[in-house]
Specification:
414 residues; Spore Coat Polysaccharide Biosynthesis Protein SpsA, Chain A; 8-stranded mixed sheet; globular; 55% helix; alpha/beta; 14 helices
């Protein structure tokens, strides 16, 4: 048994090194957000947009989104709003038509949002659109969104992600945590990637893909449950980078309960694993053929579930190594708990500090966010078992998260 203690220490050190390497790269890229965002300039409105909204039982919430799109600071003749109802048991199609959108009923069986978008693209691609924009039905969109995406496209962007803000950060601790997470992604991930000159990441809603890029990719051909990450990978493999357009703002409704959050994050993690399995070999081949920083960076992004699994394994090894220092079962148990709690306490402290920094940088400080700020560490910690379960059994079907109320974005200080 003498070998167990050094073995546990060795495993703890190994997982620590692996986590440290991943964390160091993320820190370096995150610090690049201090660079001034790209100025895409001002360009006359020339891009004709197709706006795609995959909608499943969204009768109660789709109105504000359509209203925000109909009042864009952009010529009405240069964009069409297409709602694609799928698997609906309510009157989503009728509500969308009454609010002024065009409706394209999905007539084929679909199990994911990506399949809905592929269906819509195949039906509409003959209408000579210059670019395709995707929103979720519960969003509200800033009036300058299309104008800013037009600027980005005419400045050369072939794919672009806007700023994902939150509609309801003050509702519950969970919605606060989710909001902080999105602001973190805006500032440190996409802002950092843009600062480094590598690709930002498409994040599910509030993004644009040009027809020129889709022609290069052979059409809309995402097949995983994480269509946003998959199309990011396809763009990078095609030699393009996803631009970050922080002035193109979308307000997204966040989950209210831990159960909804677990469902959402398990879908994200399963999708990341699917994309990694499908795309990492091609990314490695492209890197071997012609090394590029963008390829390297995106490969690190796809390793996030592995990082989370290493964090969970490191936590277990730390507890085991601590327990082996005890002479009795009770001492071993107490030392294991102390060792695990020490790691968790350090992670909680750093997560809370990072959350406070992003709230300051994004101008989001508000006393109503105290529950989200205090539990953000728990939000991140619960991702570890979610990832472990996803490695064991991936989610392959999109599960509906019901939105049942209309609401305007909740702004700080109001």
């Amino acid at each position: 048994m003498d070998w167990m203690f050094p073995a546990a220490l060795a495993l703890t050190g190994t997982f620590g090194v692996l986590m440290g390497l991943w964390g160091l790269w993320y820190l370096i890229s995150g610090l690049a957000c201090v660079r001034k965002p790209t100025d895409y300039g001002f360009h006359p409105a020339r891009t004709k947009f197709a706006i795609l909204i995959a909608a499943r039982n969204e009768e109660l919430v789709i109105g504000p989104l359509i209203n925000s799109l109909l009042t864009q600071d952009y010529p009405a003749e240069l964009y069409d709003i297409w709602v694609i109802p799928n698997n609906c048991t309510d009157n989503t199609a009728r509500a969308a038509e009454q609010f002024g959108a065009k409706v394209l009923e999905c007539t084929v069986p679909v199990k994911s949002k990506g399949e809905v978008l592929r269906f819509a693209y195949n039906r509409l691609r003959g209408r000579r659109y210059d670019a395709w924009v995707v929103f979720d039905a519960d969003n509200v969109v800033d009036s300058r969104f299309l104008a800013e995406m037009n600027n980005a496209r005419l400045a050369g962007a072939q794919a672009a992600q806007g700023y994902r803000d939150s509609k309801n950060p003050y509702d519950t601790a969970v919605s606060g945590c989710s909001s902080i997470y999105y602001w973190m992604m805006d500032r440190f991930h996409n802002g950092g990637k843009a600062g480094m000159g590598v690709s930002a990441m498409i994040g599910g809603t509030g993004f644009m893909v040009t027809q020129a890029l889709l022609d290069k990719l052979g059409g809309w051909r995402t097949e995983t449950i994480s269509e946003d990450l998959e199309i990011t990978a396809q763009a990078i493999l095609a030699g393009e980078r996803v631009a970050y357009v922080p002035r193109a703002v979308t307000y997204d409704e966040q989950p209210l309960t831990w159960e909804q959050s677990f469902t959402q994050r398990r879908r994200w993690t399963s999708g990341t694993l699917q994309v990694a399995q499908r795309c990492l070999p091609a990314l490695n081949e492209a890197q071997a053929d012609r090394p590029r920083l963008t390829l390297f960076d995106f490969e690190f992004t796809l390793l996030l579930p592995a990082y989370q699994l290493a964090a969970l394994a490191g936590l277990v090894c730390t507890a085991l190594a601590s327990a082996l220092g005890g002479r009795t079962l009770l001492q071993a148990l107490a030392l294991a708990i102390v060792g695990a709690c020490g790691n968790i306490a350090w992670a909680a402290l750093t997560a809370t500090i990072a959350a406070g920094i992003v709230l300051s940088l994004e101008g989001k400080w508000d006393r109503r966010l105290w529950k989200g700020l205090c539990t953000y560490w728990l939000f991140l910690l619960t991702w570890l078992p979610i990832t472990a379960v996803s490695f064991w059994k991936k989610t392959t079907v999109w599960e509906e998260i019901r939105h049942t109320r209309t609401m305007a974005p909740q702004l700080p200080g109001r």
